[in-house]
Amino acid sequence: MSLEMIFVLVMIIAMLTALLLELARPDMVVFSVVVIFLITGLLTPEEVLKGFSNQGMLTIALLFIVAGAVQKHGIIDQVMKQWLNKSKSVRGSMFRFFLPIPFFSAFLNNTPIVVAFTPVIKNWCEERGIAPSKFLIPLSYVTILGGTITLMGTSTNLVVHGMLLDFGLEGFSLFQLAIVGIPITMIGLLYLFTFGYQLLPNHLGFREQVTADSKEYIAEMTVQQGFPYINQSVQRAGLRELNGLYLIEIIRGKERISPVRSTTIIQEGDRLIFTGLISTIADLQNTKGLALETGSDLELEDLKNGNTQLVEAVVSHQSTLLDKSIKQSQFRSRFDAGVLAVHRNNERIKSKVGDIVLRPGDALLLLAGSDFIRNYQQSSDFYVVSSLATPTSLNDSRKKGWFSIGLLVSMILLVTIGWLSMFKAMTLAVFLLIVTKMITPEEAKKYIQFNVLLLIASAFGVGAAMTKSGLAAWMAKGLLSLGQPLGIIAILLLIYLLTNIFTELITNSAAAVLMLPIGLELATSLNVPYMGFAVIISIAASASFITPIGYQTNLIVYGPGGYKFKDYVKVGTPLSIIVMFVTVVIVNFVWF
């Protein structure tokens, strides 16, 4: 190994470690490595910038906008609700709901589909007393499988396609991946309806957990005559900065004051409603003139009034709230909402709410203003925003919704018959959406997940460094010496396993970018078609079922489904093994 190869290998190991330990946001970790390669002269500015102008990466940006426009008008949500309600049994509803999902995920980005359907499924399940955990992991898995059917089904396929074009090779056609995608989707659905269904947990949904634990969330104190701060502000009374507690509401006769501001005046007889770490309420009992109401009949649901509602929100990968405590992010003033509790790994974090540093996938229980859902339904800060009271729907014009869907279908047809490339079709679609005022330029910008694009573009730089330094060829040689005595099937299994391990531990796009140069070197060494390795890597990088962190859709349903990490391992491991063997057998039969 040369010094250059050793340096690149050390940097990649450091990058993987940082991603695994979540030392910073994934896009910033990978971007930092590319900056180091640039500063040390390993990559030229042109090589670094190549990822940012890659056709596959830019197509993903355009697809975010198109998918956002389709989701905005809520047509698919409404149709699926009606479709669900026609079935009488749980299995029948599951079968009815999941059959169309692969079709949607084959032509739309997976993330918006799961974001749109998670609240629909949760509310539908909870209205019928069914555990949402029986539906939400399958929702994520089915969208992942459906995304392997077409070139545009997932960002991973477009990234590999863009890299192939950069290497001067022919990329994927629109339905080339369907050779593998359709069989693994059918087998995956069969598994989830039978054996997988038995393995799915029967967890309480977030709403049921909240109802069951409501006494842990709220405490009530009454302001008596001896309270020294009567007719003074909340700030002056020292009730703004409490030890793990948050003054969420004041009940004054028939009047309810919420949210409580620092300038709100306290009066004798006020009922002060606190939430947060209720076990620390004893600290307040020592305050003269405050009496704890131990026999309070107030429930968490009673905090809602005409101006407030209980809301569940799931923190996204690209949220501006990450790596900051709730207090540091000034959550209350930014969103006009109070954080009652944070759930992580299906467990409530029992510490001072203001001191909790948020991570992607955290489920927040909020007491928010009546317009919170409307304002933040499409916010990049949250994956899912849904009321714990009643289902919400977006009230846009049905005509606009059908126009957006019709436009997407038209573009797919133009790509299928070869009149337009995927990039040109999506560029035209976005142009027409803006010209016809289906979406505004501001909305288009909001739909783009810039952190995902930075991650992908930066990962291209890492891939270029692996190729340029000779590390990709060295690793391919090592895999070849290991697998060649056992035959091509063994080599394909090794490539699949390595890619799949990377995607479970880091991210799907980064895994694909790291592995494709190795796959292309193997194809050259074996003198076999490169396309088989490209397909194997695309499928393996997408097929993330064993952990919630490898694929965004798994993380989106993590909190709302009330799942634990082991649930993904239990349900996802058999599916991952099935998909691996089916993929390897088909690729070997078709391309080798």
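Second entry:
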Amino acid sequence: MCRIAGIIDQNQSPAQLEKDVQAMCDSMKHGGPDDEGFFADPKIGLQFGHRRLALIDLSPTGYQPMRYNQGNLTITFNGEIYNYLELKTELTLLGLIFNTESDTEVILAAYQTWGTASFHKLTGMFAFAIYDQLKQVTHLVRDQMGIKPLYFSSTDTRLIFASEVKAFEKTSYRFEENADWKIYFLAFGHLPHPFTTLKDVHSLRPGHFLTWDHQEQTFQINSFENIGWKKTIFNNQDASKKIEQELSKAVNRQLIADAPVGVFLSGGIDSSIITLIANQKIGSNLNSLSINFQEKQFSEAQFQQAVADQTHGTHHSYQVKKEDLEVHFKEILSAMDQPTNDGINSWFVNRYAKVDGLKAVLSGIGADELFGGYPSFKRMKLIQKMKRFPRFLLKSATFLRSERLKRIAYLSYQNPIGEYLFLRGFFVPDTIAKILQIDKHRIDALLEAFPIDKSMDVLDGEERASWMETHLFMQNQLLKDTDFMSMSHGVEVRVPFLDQRFLNSASGIAHAQRFHNRPKGLLIDAFKHILPEIIWNRPKMGFTFPLQQWLQQGTLITNENQYSGYSVQLIRKFKTGKLHWSKAFALFQIANSNS
């Protein structure tokens, strides 16, 4: 995992391009602390930059940007390709020559052989730019699940890209604030794809590639996603067996590295399964880590220990206190690339992974979204019934006293995004209007026009909930928070549940088997033979910090002088325990934004 950046602008001097890309890379040094590299083609105004976190082929031959095919192909790459050894064998049989042990060179050889069709052959997490000198095109490519970030800006006749939004503001180009970002943030609790805090900077959609034509100085965006997997498994026994086999393969693939790899063990079902599979593979070489608290109601120590006792490696448990949050609060804010109502827990997890000397950590992200682990999966029938109500009646919910009940008004939207906001909406339009002192109609119009993928239209029930939880919540919040918080420590987080081959297998399981009578029932059945009963036979807890009391009792976000208007009233509600900490934290970020 690394950080990448680049600019293509024939109207800018090579010296300025070099200076700008250097500044972009410097701003992302935390995500690539091991090395840096640059490549330029002054004839077309192209400059690539790279910050390296070395995990595969730690030697200088893994240096990037990397060139191939007599210098006709150049890549700057962030991520890991887990099936690179398989591809390398296949390509070697086709006569391709390799000079390194890196997965980066395999991407280049695959592209030389299969062109853009090579992108869907890659199993891993990735964001990269390939400059094809012979065809005079540059491709920006992002993995199918959006695990790795990739942002771009194209105005006039230039293209700028980077792994972080902050990097764009380090250039000599001017970027205006996105006038709507605060609305999106307060409605969703994060900034949803494709929007960022900057007007002309967007995230490249997962499973897509942008092709820049150097002669025409224009671009097109195309998909390489695998869509519409056919159902092939229709009984519980076959489904459990398939999940067990394919997840085990995914974990084994993602343990590959030439640097220390560990597992984050929270004590929940997902991380426990990942830990126990990894233990079967690497045994005494396994490093696992956990976080706990003095506050007993938040501690999962007994569950973590129950799993750790079944492993043969080294397990470290760290205690995080209120004082730790106060000491590191400014660092946590600095690590955020984009505003979020979460991410604090991820910052601490990765901090201790670094303390343990780990460069990569496996995580259980994705299991809830795939196997019905959230309450939203059971609420889809309710949504279906409520959407039959007259639209004016749904809209009238905005006049109800309860903030939770006000969310019913979202179901009046002629856009499926209303269903997601009903389930997971942060602040309601009424409240957002008061906080930002703008017209509520502007907020409703903006949210109802939210761009959403048409593939959702054919889904219903739990599959519809899974799509929303995956593409709206997980990709825009969980994965984004995990990426910038982990990279702030120079640590890579790997997510076996989002392995492309595992996802394909899960998608082939019929609805009734995949979405069990109990949350994540299929996953539990598949691994009950190795999971301690204390792990699977308990209520879902989730990995949460005691942030409500820590932030309420402290002064980090409670100083009323930082706020104005309606936000002051809300902060007072927070101080009396009548507002969730995440909403107060969001208000703090709005109040302290540069605008």
